[in-house]
Amino acid sequence: MLPHNKKLLIITGILFTFLYIIIAAFLYFILKDIAISQNKKKLLNILLYEQAQKSYIDKYQKNFIYKLQKENILPKEFFDPTLMSATYITRETLKEYNLLRKKENMPQIIYKIASDNPRNPINKADKSELQLLKKFNSHEIESFSKKIKIGDEEYIYYAIPVVPNNKTCMKCHSNPKLAPKNLVKKYGDKAGFYEKLGHIRAFFSLTIPLKSEYQLINKIALIFDSILFILFLFSYLIIYFIIRKLDQKDRQIIDSSNIDGLTKIYNRKKFNIDIQNKIDQNITNETYLMLIDIDYFKKINDTYGHPTGDKVLEELSDIITKNIRSNDKFYRIGGEEFAIISTQKNKEDEKIFAEKLKKIVEEHNFDEVEHLTISIGFTKYKPNESYLQWYKRADEALYEAKKTRNTIAEK
Ligand code: GH3
Ligand code: MG
Ligand code: MG
């Protein structure tokens, strides 16, 4: 393949690989983003449900118990978290929910309520949670979510505040003396009291692992990447075949510019390129340059006409082409002058080669002209010499042979 076509193929390959990596990476990040936002939505759904549950407890359950207390059906000191503590009920509901999830092989949800004035110490907010609670109270944010890492695994954390303290809340969270006696008996009178109306005293948070979503993403990405890979490979193969076809055409054009129109052997231009290339490659083996000139060719033209002369040139090129090895390079370097570049074991072999050519031309029966002879001059390449030095010596050898014609001379 020609260097510029090879370069084009390599650049296309690099470009395709680069594009493939970018698309694959881009898709992976998009999928990851979708999974995260879907999980956030999932958590928000559960949190909203919890909030609804808390509102129900405050609005209906507690009020109903207070009514029963007012009507002396239930004692005034009655308090039981299983009926009256939204925090307790939510936590227990979540436990049941996690049990059901486990049965369905779904990941467990970590639930936490964080408060700045918790009755139950397990609900105490840590430093960062306290800061978050402050943000909820100042209405800087309405919800909070982020991706967190626990060990090696990634999770989504989502938090929303509980509804601000209202009148129903204040019954148990203002002065301990006003709270149900059994509540104080159970939790003491130190924490969870003296709350202010409108203050957000806690927030719910849920944490869920992203593992199963990531596994799904990996599966989707693998399928997509495989399809993309096949598409890219297929496109690349098409491009490869197109470039190969273009390369063949390019080479045909180059070759035709190197071919002599009449004899269809290499021309002078190709001879100059090849001989210079040979020298640039630092010739190490015995390389010979042979020049061939038809004797009295002018006479042939004069006697039989120019077209016959042309035919002789074609015929001569044919018989020489048939009698040289595939490694030998044969050129028409002038009107009726030819050159052969060949490698030999020694000078004797080159001489035998020259004699063989001279003989077959001499013995060949040319159309119309019948017989003609050639003169040959050859010389070996000497290390470090230039193209001109080499060529000049071969020309001198041919000049020498021309003195007697139908002769071989060496230099
Ligand atoms: P010698 O080499 O033996 O000294 O004699 P010559 O008659 O061959 O002399 P020279 O090399 O000077 O003449 C070559 C002739 O070849 C001159 C030119 O008219 C003829 N010639 C060159 N190119 C072509 C060609 O393409 N076709 C034909 N028919 N003749 C050509
Ligand atoms: Mg000549
Ligand atoms: Mg001649």
Keywords:
57% helix; five-stranded mixed sheet; 2 domains; four-stranded antiparallel sheet; Alpha-Beta Plaits; binds 3'-deoxy-guanosine-5'-triphosphate; binds magnesium ion; alpha+beta
Question: What report would you give on this structure?
Answer:
- This protein is an alpha+beta fold and 411 residues long.
- It folds into 2 domains: 3-220, no CATH class; 268-410, Alpha-Beta Plaits (2-Layer Sandwich), CATH 3.30.70.270.
- It is 57% helix and 14% strand.
- It is built from 12 helices and 9 strands.
- The chain has helices spanning 3-70, 81-84, 86-103, 127-137, 167-173, 181-187, 211-257, 268-280, 297-304, 306-322, 347-363, 387-402, and strands at 110-115, 144-150, 153-161, 202-209, 287-294, 329-332, 337-343, 374-380, 408-410.
- The strands form 2 sheets. A 5-stranded mixed sheet has the order 6-7-5-8-9, with helices on both faces. Strands 1-4-3-2 form a 4-stranded antiparallel sheet, with helices on both faces.
- Strand 8, helix 12 and strand 9 (408-410) form a beta-alpha-beta unit.
- Helix 1 runs antiparallel to helix 7.
- Residues 293, 336-337 line the site of one magnesium ion (MG).
